[in-house]
Specification:
CATH architecture of the largest domain: Beta Complex
Distance between the termini: 91 Å
Number of helices: 3
Structural class: mainly beta
CATH superfamily of the largest domain: Ribosomal protein L25, C-terminal domain
Order of helices and strands: EHEEHEEEEEEEEEEH
Radius of gyration: 26 Å
CATH topology of the largest domain: RNA Polymerase Alpha Subunit, Chain A, domain 2
Helix content: 10-25%
Number of domains: 2
Shape: elongated
Strand order of the largest sheet: 1-3-2-6-5-4
């Protein structure tokens, strides 16, 4: 049973007019589907949905509560209005707690503020999510890495993440994919290049030219 719950109501009527009316009443159309399961059309309260989705994101199991039953799901696809930031439609994937899932989870870099101030570099994040496979109960909300000790010579790769060696989780993202590195800011890099050029390095027009 999940810690986060979301109430739902069975939806029988279909069609654009019906869906538009639901949204006008602050009810969001949604569908529950899953392996070996029939699609179930439901509606969700917009305000409750916003709160729950803010807590769960795409990697935390949510119990859909409907007709006295709890259905464990993950948010699969969330459609929002491009300008109004309002939910339009939700796809929920019904999961079997005893079957492994393959999904993307976010990578969060911690310790940014503790990177040595005397290092004239900027932190660059490579990929911001990785693909994993595990049982639903073992899905991490996010994969964290502390970059406070990072230096210019040692970038961070997927293989450096603790989850890469977790026996309960299979990481499908290439271990050589870069997670984070330090880079010289463009302005400083150009300044250093200019400083290394001396007068002797500047070619003189006409030098070494033969007279005709």
């Amino acid at each position: 049973m999940a810690d986060i719950k979301l109430n739902a109501t069975l939806r029988e009527e279909k069609g654009k007019n019906r869906v538009d009316k639901l949204r006008a009443d602050k009810q969001i159309p949604a569908v529950i589907y899953g392996k070996g399961k029939e699609n179930v059309m439901i509606t969700l309260n917009a305000k409750e949905l916003e709160k729950v989705y803010g807590e769960a994101g795409g990697t935390t199991i949510v119990d859909i509560v409907m007709d006295g039953k709890n259905i464990p799901v993950l948010f699969k696809e969330v459609q929002k209005h491009p300008f109004k930031n309002q939910f339009l439609h939700i796809d929920l994937y019904a999961i079997n707690m005893n079957e492994v899932l393959r999904l993307m989870v976010p990578v969060t870099l911690t310790g940014r503020d503790d990177i040595r101030a005397d290092q004239p570099f900027v932190l660059i994040q490579g990929i911001n999510e990785i693909e994993i496979e595990c049982l639903p109960a073992d899905i991490p909300e996010t994969v964290e890495y502390d970059v406070s000790g990072i230096n210019f010579e040692t970038p961070v790769f997927v293989k450096d993440l603790a989850v890469f060696n977790d026996e309960k989780i299979t990481v499908h993202t290439d271990g050589e994919e870069m997670i984070a590195s330090l880079s010289i800011p463009q302005e400083e890099s150009e300044a250093e290049t200019e400083e290394t050029i001396s007068a002797a390095d500047v070619p003189v027009i006409g030098e070494n030219e033969t007279e005709e």
